[in-house]
Automatic annotation (TrEMBL):
Keyword Methyltransferase: no
UniProt record similarity statement: Belongs to the GHMP kinase family. Mevalonate kinase subfamily.
EC number: 2.7.4.2
Presence of the UniProt keyword GTP-binding in the record: no
InterPro entries: Erg8, GHMP_kinase_C_sf, GHMP_kinase_N_dom, Phosphomevalonate_kinase, Ribosomal_Su5_D2-typ_SF, Ribsml_uS5_D2-typ_fold_subgr
Keywords: ATP-binding, Kinase, Lipid biosynthesis, Lipid metabolism, Nucleotide-binding, Steroid biosynthesis, Steroid metabolism, Transferase
Protein name: phosphomevalonate kinase
Top-rank taxon, per record: Eukaryota
Pfam family, one: GHMP_kinases_N
Organism ancestry: Eukaryota, Viridiplantae, Streptophyta, Embryophyta, Tracheophyta
GO biological process, one term: isopentenyl diphosphate biosynthetic process, mevalonate pathway
Pathway(s) this gene product operates in, as recorded in its UniProt entry: Isoprenoid biosynthesis; isopentenyl diphosphate biosynthesis via mevalonate pathway; isopentenyl diphosphate from (R)-mevalonate: step 2/3
Length: 508
């Protein structure tokens, strides 16, 4: 039986922080080249003659980065998992992904020949390995321990899929792993990769190969992956979120409006009393009213993400504080949200205008961006020497004005709600970044806080920003925008090595 490898990208929420939680507010979410991988293969190569009568099969989950292996028994009747390893090793996101993907397979494959093949594949057991690109996690401690500077080059020198360090208890024994994250949506990418790999392995969907870009089109198969992954992620995290992280993991960069919570809230309740197959049947028949439109950064622009190393932030607690403020100050909060929504929409329009200008007048667009990449923004107007160049410069400056307004309203919302959406340390860093040559945008992604900052640079100005960040103790990640969504890989990622110039590591 063939091995299946699926991957799904992490995300950066450029606009729509907090607003994206409520319809019909939109957010721009960029998918990245940081990807989670799920590798599926059989545990048993051969089946015993009486194996077709078995009511249970084996499932093994391996996470090399955590040095963990968890074993389960899966019921063939209702697709539920029973952990036979120590329970504290379990990963609820992967567990739900497995249960709902297998349940979806039972629901979707209706012909007898399909059912028989599904039954045999499950009886062979499911050996699942998950791997996350280094950019999902913080490796500041490892870099500093090696005496290396906080630079992208130092980060790139780490082997791909590096181990995540463990905390120690008072006796020095290993306890829960220290998983300082960078805010790229690791749980959503991981859940999506596992769901996609299983649905492909079990013959439910046929997903695009990463090596064949011509096949990267939206399809019913992608929609199935999306619905199953949203369900699994929702049940695992115990609440119905906005879903933008799962949607971008499936479809790639996009303009996103969330689905009505009711499409999954009933599933969340039903999961306590119904089988996963009954729940997923209802989910697949549900009215999914989310909106997604393809989006990507205009040409000659680069997304940068920096890790300030000033401690993480709890997104759920920040969201809770903002909701509390909304309830206590409905009129004031509504006014702030309206201004923020308008600023978000304006930024989206300016970026779309730049993409259109690049398509319609490429040489002019390229000339203006290359010139502006070496200048601070107050000098950009000097290159608006004719109407065509003026249109490009006007859109660039309009985008800058929009992010300034977005940041202002986000800070105001944070002050009113009593949470550090753009903390003072981040504000100073972002102001310094925005004041550099060739910087179009800078801000805090998603819900904000201390987790990360982003910048969008023009032309060849990237190195200037990463050098400045390094001088201020900010580690520039290797993340860049990659508009692709979920895909099937041709080989185990550890064979080819994800980062260029890095040697492969052995397969288990």
């Amino acid at each position: 039986m063939a091995v299946v490898v699926a991957s799904a990208p992490g995300k950066v929420l450029l606009t729509g922080g907090y607003l994206i939680l409520e319809r019909p507010n939109a957010g721009i979410v960029l998918s990245t080249n940081a990807r989670f991988y799920a590798i599926i293969k059989p545990i048993h190569q051969d089946l015993k003659p009486d194996s077709l009568l078995w009511s249970w099969t084996d499932v093994k989950l391996t996470s090399p980065q955590l040095s963990r292996q968890t074993e389960y028994k899966m019921s063939l009747k209702n697709s539920t998992l029973q952990c036979i390893s120590p329970r504290d090793l379990a990963n609820p996101f992967v567990e739900q992904a497995v249960q709902y993907a297998v349940a979806a397979a039972h629901t979707i494959l209706v012909e007898k020949s399909q059912k028989d093949l599904l039954h045999k594949r499950i009886l062979h057991g499911l050996d699942i390995t998950i791997l996350g690109s280094n950019d999902f996690y913080s490796y500041r401690n490892q870099i500093e321990a090696r005496g290396l500077p906080l630079t992208p080059e130092a980060l790139a020198s780490l082997p791909p899929f590096s181990s995540i360090t463990f905390n120690s208890d008072a006796n020095g024994a290993n306890c829960k792993p220290e998983v300082a994250k960078t805010g790229l949506g690791s749980s959503a990418a991981m859940t999506t990769a596992v769901v996609a790999a299983l649905l492909q392995y079990l013959g439910v969907v046929k997903l695009p190969l990463s090596s064949n870009p011509l096949l990267r089109v939206e399809s019913e198969d992608l929609d199935v992956v999306h619905m199953v992954a949203q369900s699994a992620h929702c049940i695992a995290q115990g609440k119905v979120g906005s879903g933008f992280d799962v949607s971008s993991a499936v479809y790639g960069s996009q303009r996103y409006v969330r689905f009505s919570p009711g499409v999954l809230s009933s599933a969340q309740v039903a999961a306590n009393c119904l089988s996963s197959q009954e729940v997923i049947t209802d989910v697949l028949k549900g009215k999914w009213d989310h909106e997604k439109a393809k989006f990507s950064l205009p040409p000659l622009m680069t997304l940068l993400l920096g890790e300030p190393g000033s401690g993480g932030s709890s997104t759920p607690s920040m969201v809770g504080a903002v909701k509390k403020w909304q309830a206590s100050e409905p009129q004031k909060s509504q006014e702030t949200w309206k201004r923020l929504s308008d600023a978000n929409s304006l930024l989206e329009r300016q970026l779309n205008a730049l993409s259109m200008l690049a398509e319609e007048q490429w040489e002019t667009y390229k000339q203006v961006l290359n010139s502006c990449s070496n200048l601070k923004c107050e000098k950009w107007k000097e290159h608006a020497s004719d109407a065509r160049k003026e249109a490009v410069v006007k859109a660039l400056l309009g985008a800058r004005d929009s992010i300034v307004n977005i940041r202002c309203h986000m800070r105001k919302m944070g002050d009113e709600a009593g949470v550090p959406i753009e903390p003072e340390s981040q504000k100073k860093l972002l102001d310094a970044t925005m004041n550099m040559e060739g910087v179009l945008l800078a801000g805090v992604p998603g819900a904000g806080g201390f987790d990360a900052i982003f910048a969008i640079t023009l032309g060849e100005s990237t190195n200037k920003v990463t050098n400045m960040w390094s001088s201020r103790g900010v580690l520039s990640l290797l993340v860049r925008e990659d508009p692709r969504g979920v895909s099937i890989e041709n080989e185990d990622p550890r064979i080819r090595g994800i980062s260029s110039g890095i040697s492969a590591v052995n397969i288990n």
